[in-house]
Model the fold of this input.
Amino acid sequence: MSTDTDADARAQLIDLAEEFYEQFEGGDVPKMRIPTRTKSNIEYDEDKNVWVYGDRESTRTAKTISGAEKLLKATYTIDFLARQLDQDRSSTLRELYYLSESWDVDEAQFSSQDESNNLIEDLEIVSEVKREDFHMRPEESGAKVMGPLLLREQTNRGDREIHCQDDVGQGGYQIPNNPDTIEFLDNDAEFVLCVETGGMRDRLVENGFDDEHDALVVHLGGQPARATRRLTKRLHDELDLPVTVFTDGDPWSYRIFGSVSYGSIKSAHLSEYLATPEAQFIGVQPEDIVEYDLPTDPLSDSDVNALESELEDPRFQTDYWEEQIELQLEIDKKSEQQSLASYGLDFVTDTYLPERLDEMGVL
Done:
C-alpha cells in the first residue's frame, strides 16, 4: 500500500528528471552536480554533531560521451524507481543491475553492480531522498538484536509485536531493511553493545550477557549495513541508551566503529540519519593488547598503511585515537576479539566487558 512518503519520494525523483529536460529546452547542456565523496571533502558539522560533505562538487555533464551515458542511466533509473513506487513494489540493488539489461538502449545498461550502486547513491544525494524510500534494498544484512526490547514492526502481512528475547531464538531478532517501520513499545535495557563478529555475538548470548546486564546486543556483521546503523541511532536517540562498539583490534575494525559513530565517507550525506556520535569504542584496544598480553598477529603492510591513513582522517583526529593508533604502530601487533578466550570462555563476559563498561560509566 503506497504511502505519503512514497508519493514524496516519487515527486522528488520526477523533479530531478524534469531538471534535465528544462536544461535541454533552455539550450543548456544537461548536468548533475554531486558532492565529491572523498575524506578530503568531509567536515564536522558542529550544530548536528556529525561529519558531512563539504562544498567541493563533481559534475556529471553531457558534454562528454561518458557524462552523457551517466545521465542517460540516471534517467532510466529514475523512470524505473518511479514505476516501482507507483506499483508499491521493491527491489534489491543486485536486481537493479540485472534489470538494466532489459532496457531498450544499450548505453543505459550498467556495466557492473558498483556502477548501479553508485548511481543510487548519487540520486539519494541530489534528490535528498533515502534509497529506502525508493524501495531499494541491499541484498541482505543478517544483523540481529538480542535483548530486553519489545517492538512493533510493520510488515506487508500486518503489524507484529516481537520481544527481542522472549519471542526469538538464539539467533535474535533480524533487523529489517527499513528500521523506521519499527515502533519501540517497551524496554528494560540499560545500554547497547554493538559487536563486530558473529562468534563474539554468539558467545555473549550463550553466556547470557544480554540478560545479566540488561544489554541490547546488536550484531554488526562486519562493516554494518545502513539498517543496523539506523536502528542503533534510534535506540540511542529515542530510548536514551548509551551505545558502545566492541570490535577486533585492527585498523579495519576501527573503521567499523567509525561508521557507527562518525558516519562513512560514502554515506556522509546521511550522517545525521545514520551516525551516533555519542557511541564509545570499547575494544579490543591496542592498550588491551599490551595490558592483557593477548595473542596477536603482526601488522601487515596494508594494516600499517591503513593506520597511518587513519591518523590523517579527520574523523579519527582525537587525542584518544591518536594515542591508540600510535601505540599500535609501535607494538606492530593486532588482535581479534576471540583472543580474549585465552583467559577462558567466560572472561569476556565476566571480567573484560564489565570492567570496561564500568570504566566508561555505562555500568
Q: What stands out?
A: Residues 4-25 form the longest helix (22 residues).
